[in-house]
Amino acid sequence: MACRRAGAGxxxxxxxxxxxxxxCRKNSIDSSHPxxxxxxxxxxxxxxxxxxxxxxxxxxxxxLQLENAFxxxxxNKTRSRVLVALAMLIVLISTPAHxxxxxxxxxxxxVVALTTAPVYLAExxxxxxxxxLSVDLTVTGGxxxxxxxxxxxxxxxTYTASDQVMLPWQEGKRLVIVxxxxxxxxxxxxxxxxxAQAKGITEKSPLADKLKALRGLTIGATQPGSLTxxxxxxxxxxxxxxxxxxxxIIPVGSGLTWLAALEQRKVDVAxxxxxxxxxxxxxxxxxxxxxxxxxxxxxxAEFLQQVFVTRPDVIQKDPELVRKLVRALLRANQxxxxxxxxxxxDALRPSMGATPRDALMTGIKATVPAYSRDGRxxxxxxxxxxxxxxxxxILKKRPMLADIATNDFLPR
Length: 412
What we know:
Elements: H1 11-23, E1 36-41, E2 47-52, E3 58-63, H2 64-71, H3 76-94, E4 103-109, H4 117-124, H5 127-130, E5 133-139, H6 145-152, E6 157-161, H7 163-170, E7 176-182, E8 188-192, H8 193-199, H9 207-212, E9 218-221, H10 227-238, E10 248-251, H11 256-263, E11 269-272, H12 276-282, E12 286-290, E13 306-310, H13 312-317, H14 319-338, H15 341-347, H16 349-352, H17 357-367, H18 379-391, H19 401-404
Parallel strand pairs: 4-5, 4-6, 9-10, 9-11
Antiparallel strand pairs: 1-2, 2-3, 6-13, 7-13, 8-11, 8-12
């Protein structure tokens, strides 16, 4: 075994070389200058020999008992046992505690949008990894299937809209919101340009005129029972129209299928979180009909939209896991609120790279300011969300905050 310079390299390597020096006493670094030796008592009273080369540099420190064990005329068998024991001790000491594999966590999302971007930002910025987690995401193409997977136990967490928690609750299936991620309605409406021209509507038309213009139209939502479908029903009733009678609401999915449905006039108007409505506008075939992200409908100014949810049994079994995920998402929100739009767009490139840069930037500027800085769930935001569901004719029983939410997992 070749002797190497003590003190060079990392701590683990130093330990290995220190053991090697026991085997290479006569082959020290300063072999050209025989080292002098001094005996130095340690704090525990054990004497040790320090070999110092002519240059004055440290060569090795050998506890006297160990040195004697190797230098006395003992058997090769005893010497081998000592070496094996030392090697095992070094392996145990030098193995890092953080070397264990990250814990895998399954989570669902309804869509890929700027309203779900905090999850992608937590991944991109390494916040999940820093908590020792590897998150496996499944996008369900709209609200409904995401929450069903959570109820069935296929996943332990979902990042979804608050209405998806209230509906199961009134049927006796309790889920728990552990973080309010976005406390404002950010679902925007895009109308095909030809329809807008025929209706005499522009982006600057009064909200009341825009609502009246929905009569007789086909409205695209992501999934039946999703927030987009529920918000469409709420808006129609607010305008004095009856859903599926005065205007039809149909599912069109999300992403490219949503864009294609509007561009090809399979629907006249469609609802979705940014940046899809902005993308439709940027491509020139739509106008932004209702811009909730900028507060066009004042009734939705404080609205518990995006929430992080789990089951009661997960909370009971592993509350620390819940805290870790909440911490990561909260850090993502806080980073986004402090970052420049260009930085956020760069961080979202892996998940939203197909979105035109201009449309993505527009959506970021409209959406990110609504991210919650502290993650708290308030009675007022929950009430606004329940009002929408009640007006839409979907919610028959209103929950209190304690029925479906807790702020106990937020940092204090």
